[in-house]
Specification:
Strand 1 and strand 2 form a beta hairpin. The protein has a 3-stranded antiparallel β-sheet with strand order 1-2-3. By secondary structure, the chain is mainly alpha-helical. Helix 6 packs antiparallel against helix 7. It is 50% helix and 7% strand. The chain is built from 18 helices and 6 strands. The longest helix is centred in the middle third of the chain and has 27 residues. Bound molecules: acetyl coenzyme *A (ACO). The site of acetyl coenzyme *A has 16 residues, from loops.
């Protein structure tokens, strides 16, 4: 525990006049928290916070977000520096173990992850049981959930070595699982991982290579993929990460927990917004119609919202969106694609950012605003967008899970409720109802 006590907070019960003093705890940065752990036992009251907008659910040293200033740090390192100078596996090491690896640690970590990329051959049969038109996220939920049936030797959560092996297996196998889901939907043969390639290169190879011709890795696309993975690797206690932690708090094995995280990520309010941005830009269709759509977004009687704008936590420019925009230009320039959707997106951003409505409400582009355009240019169908998010976020999920399991104060997650149903009543026999 790295927390420190920084005073107290006093609650006064207006009905009884009773005073309750609660400790205030400080982390290393960010808002202090009021420690309500003893509130129920001492006052017979629960706190009430549906949606957890004011609730810290755990102590964590992985990721820090300052939404007002548009800051995202992983173990203290700004996301912009990581996206520019680091790579995805280095970030995975940082999230899992707390430090950037030195040369020797890096070589070992890359080697260990690389040699876990193959899937048990029997898992191929799983894919063949799915319909070809199954949504790839449905396949991800099923196959990842099934991993514990294949890798039972790494499901003992009380064994530190088993926890590490499970973490490596998940980070290593997720691109293989995702690429196979994609290939299955196309009716193309699966590609085995190639250990001479980097994590991002290998992922591209498994996704896009076909046996009938040589696949040449485009370094610009490999770099863009690596950046995309970095930008989505972790984002503290969002819905899917909290799902992984809650599932894991009961002692469930890590493969089952990550499958739960994938299910949560699938929801359109979480992982699906970049697809919605593409649909919106397509609907707008031309620069001349941007003002009309901005007007619609501001109209309270119209349910339309500018997709890719606004964020629950960021009330400033999402730092990931800046990197994503730069990556977007690099990819489109390299591929020689003149996508009118990019021009439209930039026009929309300019108009919205000069508009009083968006300025007053601190509505800025979020990470999803440009990512759909890059992924489309790289050749992904929109159904794969959330799958790529899941591949990246697996690193954050498993690092958060590991942090939770290794926390000596960890308990099963068990929120309480405000009961509003009927009070106790007597059962009425059927003939008397
Ligand atoms: N377009 C127009 N108005 C907006 C938008 C938007 N995209 N986002 C928020 N607003 C307005 C709201 O109408 C509200 O106005 P009001 O105060 O006059 O009533 C005000 O801004 C505050 O909005 P809330 O909905 O209270 O903000 P909240 O934090 O609950 O919502 C959310 C955040 C869901 C992301 C929202 O901004 C939104 O719907 N954005 C579009 C969808 C999107 O891009 N989602 C991806 C998020 S990033 C991610 O998940 C990886």
């Amino acid at each position: 525990m790295n927390e420190k006590n920084s005073g107290t907070f006093t609650l006064i019960n207006d009905k009884t006049g009773d005073k309750y003093t609660l400790p205030i705890i400080s982390g290393t940065t960010g808002p202090d928290v009021i420690d309500v752990r003893r509130l129920y036992s001492e006052t017979d009251h629960f706190t009430f916070d549906p949606g957890y907008t004011s609730t810290g659910s755990c102590e964590s040293s992985l990721t820090y977000i300052d939404g007002d200033r548009g800051i995202l740090l992983h173990r203290g390192y700004p996301i912009e520096e990581l996206a520019e100078q680091s790579n995805f596996l280095e970030l995975a090491h940082l999230l899992l173990f707390g430090e950037l690896p030195n040369q020797k640690e890096s070589e070992k970590f890359v080697h260990d992850i690389t040699y876990h990329t193959m899937l048990h051959e029997q898992l191929m049969n799983f894919y063949r049981g799915f319909r070809r038109d199954a949504h790839p996220m449905a396949i991800m939920c099923g196959v990842v959930g099934a991993l514990s049936a294949f890798y039972h030797d790494s499901t003992d959560i009380n064994d530190a070595h088993a926890r590490m092996v499970a973490s490596y297996r998940l980070i290593a196998k997720m691109p293989t699982i995702a690429a196979m889901a994609y290939k299955y939907s196309l009716g193309q043969p699966f590609n085995y991982p190639q250990n001479n390639l980097s994590y991002a290169e290998n992922f591209l190879q498994m996704l896009f290579a076909v046996p009938s011709e040589e696949y040449k890795i485009n370094p610009v696309l490999a770099r863009a993929m690596d950046r995309l993975l970095i930008l989505h690797a972790d984002h503290e206690q969002n819905a899917s990460t909290s799902t992984v932690r809650l599932a894991g708090s009961s002692g469930a094995n890590p493969f089952a927990c990550i499958a739960a995280g994938i299910a949560s990520l699938w929801g359109p309010a979480h992982g699906g917004a970049n697809e919605a941005v593409l649909n919106m830009l397509t609907e707008i269709g031309h620069k001349s119609r941007v003002s009309e759509f901005v007007k619609k977004a501001k109209d309270k009687n119209d349910p339309f919202r500018l997709m890719g704008f606004g964020h629950r936590v960021y009330k400033n420019y999402d730092p990931r969106a800046k990197v994503m925009m730069q990556s977007c230009h690099e990819v489109l320039d390299d591929l020689g694609i003149d996508d009118p959707l990019l021009e439209l997106a930039m026009e929309l951003e300019t108009i919205a950012r000069e508009d009083e409505y968006f300025i007053e409400r601190n509505l800025y582009p979020n990470v999803d605003f440009y990512s759909g355009i890059i992924l489309k240019a790289m050749g992904f169908p929109s159904s794969m967008f959330t799958v790529l998010f899941a591949v990246a976020r697996t690193t954050g999920w498993i690092a958060q899970w590991k942090e939770m399991i290794e926390d000596p104060t960890q308990k099963i997650g068990r929120p309480r409720q405000l009961y509003t149903g009927p009070t106790a009543r007597t059962y009425t026999p059927l003939e008397q109802r």
